[in-house]
């Protein structure tokens, strides 16, 4: 008993050893392509076709095995890189990765060039070119080169200015210092406003670029509609007085770019509203079929029933009381048979008589 | 408060058309003034232009109702006609049902109309046609849907339902709180 157990234990241990050894080496048909700069390993081996179809634990196991093998190979390559100990003897072993060779695509589209600001347009028009300013200015009082603006600027600290001359055309009672401060505030505000305006203009222009029509003429319906809308708005009055095509819907200009749901104005043109509703009623009424099939069929059935009822009524009146009595009493074969033979004779007699 | 959109107008007209047919034109296009439909908090109101202009100056949260409420749009955008529209349905109704005095009470309590309570019914009423219910004295009591066509009404047994109840004037008392 003990011997068997020992053998078992030894066999198990040997198996484990073999597994450990096997786990380090991986065999692949095609060598993997490595880009260690991106920690990338490309496996171009064909995947086992049958195994990867459909979901299930088998597929999971296969995928996991694949991932493990490839990671093993990548790790092996990483261990081959030149490495050093960071932060002294006890620190972690850091490998020096080479430059990445695989070119990753951009996550977002490249930024489009912003449209020129109002000043830039004017400058281009007038041909004004930008003059490079020197960063330092000679300060006469301090007799040294000082910066143009900022800390220790050339003209002295504006907060410490102790003299403000009253210009010739100004009101003598006015506080000049207050005026200077106010004007500075106004200038700052105006600049900020212009900056924001330029930003808004750039944002608006960049958000909806006018897509050109395809030269071949194969456009989708949406594209055509968009281009038609852009063309309509490209008039001097921004499309307000452009005549519409017969079936083009009249849409009010949406300032949000079509994001917010808009309704008709509360007290808009009531006559137009009435016209629209009457037209809607007319269209709704026109769709009703002229012949209501169900009603026609019912009518037909009713007629047939009425006819059947009329015919039944006539038969019963012919048979009369005699028929009723005979049906009730006669049970035995002979008598009823005899009476039945008599009946048609009587009926025919009655028929000829009546 | 806003005008109805195309889809909403269609739903309202379809519902109204089941009761008054093409006479909706007479509601839309009236000789004695301009009347229009307006939507306020999911309820459809039929209101004259003069009143609308005055109501437009009331703040939205304070406005409870205006004109005549025809019905409301449910959460799934279905239109439900309410009893307050009876004044406009009754004169233009195409198919009418008269109820015997004995079962008037029953109808006003919200029950369906049985064959035993049926007085008269317009000829050629189809099944599931919208009908307006009157008392024998020609007083409009409410409206409903015909459960049987006129032909079938003659054949059916006395305990069968002939008109499904939709709305009756008893609701003015029963649903006093929720009616607008």
Automatic annotation (TrEMBL), chain A:
Tell me where on the tree of life, at the top rank, the source sits. Answer: Eukaryota
Q: Which InterPro entries does UniProt cross-reference here?
A: Ribosom_reg
Q: Name one GO cellular component term.
A: preribosome, large subunit precursor
In this chain, composition skew of type Basic residues spans 312-338
Q: Which Pfam families match?
A: RRS1
* A biological process from GO: endonucleolytic cleavage in ITS1 to separate SSU-rRNA from 5.8S rRNA and LSU-rRNA from tricistronic rRNA transcript (SSU-rRNA, 5.8S rRNA, LSU-rRNA)
Keyword terms, alphabetized = Nucleus, Ribosome biogenesis
| Low complexity composition-biased segments | 339-354
Region annotation (Disordered) ranges: 90-118, 238-268, 303-354
Its annotated compartments are: Nucleus
PANTHER family assigned to the protein according to its UniProt record, in alphabetical order: RIBOSOME BIOGENESIS REGULATORY PROTEIN, RIBOSOME BIOGENESIS REGULATORY PROTEIN HOMOLOG
The family assignment reads: Belongs to the RRS1 family.
Report what the protein is called: Ribosome biogenesis regulatory protein
Taxonomy, top ranks, is: Eukaryota, Metazoa, Chordata, Craniata, Vertebrata
TrEMBL record, chain B:
Q: Which InterPro entries match?
A: NIP7_N, Nip7_N_euk, PUA, PUA-like_sf, PUA_sf, Ribosomal_synth_fac_NIP7, UPF0113_PUA
Subcellular localization, per the record?
Nucleus, Nucleolus
Read off the Pfam families from this record: pre-PUA_NIP7, UPF0113
Which keywords does this Swiss-Prot/TrEMBL entry list? Nucleus, Ribosome biogenesis, RNA-binding
Tell me the SMART domains matching this sequence.
PUA
Instruction: Please state which protein family the record places this protein in.
Output: Belongs to the NIP7 family.
User: What does this gene product do?
Assistant: Required for proper 34S pre-rRNA processing and 60S ribosome subunit assembly.
Protein name in the entry: 60S ribosome subunit biogenesis protein NIP7 homolog
Q: Which gene encodes it?
A: Nip7
């Amino acid at each position: 008993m003990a011997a068997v157990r020992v053998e078992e234990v030894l066999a198990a241990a040997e198996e484990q050893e073999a597994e450990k050894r096997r786990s380090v080496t991986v065999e692949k048909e095609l060598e993997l392509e490595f880009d260690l700069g991106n920690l990338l390993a490309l496996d171009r081996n064909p995947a086992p076709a049958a195994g990867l179809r459909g979901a299930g634990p088998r597929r999971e196991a296969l995928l996991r095995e694949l991932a493990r093998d490839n990671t093993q190979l990548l790790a092996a390559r990483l261990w081959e890189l030149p490495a050093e100990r960071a932060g002294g003897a006890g620190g972690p072993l850091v490998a020096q990765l080479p430059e990445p060779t695989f070119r990753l695509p951009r996550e977002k589209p490249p930024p489009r060039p912003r449209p020129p600001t109002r000043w830039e347009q004017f400058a281009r028009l007038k041909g004004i070119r930008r003059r490079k300013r020197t960063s330092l200015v000679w300060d006469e009082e301090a007799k040294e080169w000082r910066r143009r603006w900022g800390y220790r600027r050339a003209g002295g600290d504006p907060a410490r200015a102790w003299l403000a001359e009253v210009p010739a055309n100004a009101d003598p009672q006015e506080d000049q210092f207050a005026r200077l401060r106010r004007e500075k505030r106004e200038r700052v505000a105006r600049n900020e406003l212009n900056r924001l305006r330029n930003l808004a203009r750039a944002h608006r222009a960049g958000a909806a670029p006018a897509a050109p029509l395809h030269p071949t003429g194969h456009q989708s319906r949406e594209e055509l509609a968009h281009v038609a809308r852009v063309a309509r708005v490209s008039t001097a009055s921004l499309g307000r007085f452009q005549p519409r095509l017969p079936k083009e819907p009249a849409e009010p200009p949406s300032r949000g770019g079509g994001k917010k749901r808009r309704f008709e104005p509360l007290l808009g043109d009531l006559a137009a509203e009435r016209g629209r509703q009457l037209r809607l009623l007319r269209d709704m009424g026109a769709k009703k079929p002229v012949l209501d099939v169900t009603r026609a069929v019912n009518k037909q059935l009713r007629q047939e029933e009425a006819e059947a009822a009329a015919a039944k009524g006539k038969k019963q009146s012919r048979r009369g009381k005699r028929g009723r009595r005979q049906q009730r009493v006669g049970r035995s074969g002979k008598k009823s048979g005899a009476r039945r033979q008599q009946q048609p004779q009587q009926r025919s007699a009655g028929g000829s008589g009546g | 408060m806003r005008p109805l959109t195309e889809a909403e107008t269609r739903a309202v007209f379809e519902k109204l058309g089941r009761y008054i047919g093409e006479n909706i034109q007479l509601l839309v296009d009236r000789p004695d003034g301009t009347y229009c439909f307006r939507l306020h908090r999911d309820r459809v109101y039929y209101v004259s232009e003069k009143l609308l202009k005055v109501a437009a100056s009331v703040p939205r949260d304070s406005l409870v109702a205006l004109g005549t409420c025809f019905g409301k749009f449910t959460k799934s955008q279905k239109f439900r006609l309410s009893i307050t529209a009876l004044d406009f349905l009754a004169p233009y109704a195409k198919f009418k049902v008269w109820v015997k005095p004995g079962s008037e009470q029953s109808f006003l309590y919200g029950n369906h109309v049985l064959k035993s309570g049926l007085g008269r019914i317009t000829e050629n009423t189809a099944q599931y046609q919208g009908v307006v219910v009157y008392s024998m004295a020609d007083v409009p009591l409410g409206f409903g849907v015909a459960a049987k066509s006129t032909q079938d009404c003659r054949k059916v047994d006395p305990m069968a339902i002939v008109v499904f109840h939709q709305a009756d004037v008893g609701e003015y008392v029963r649903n006093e709180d929720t009616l607008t």
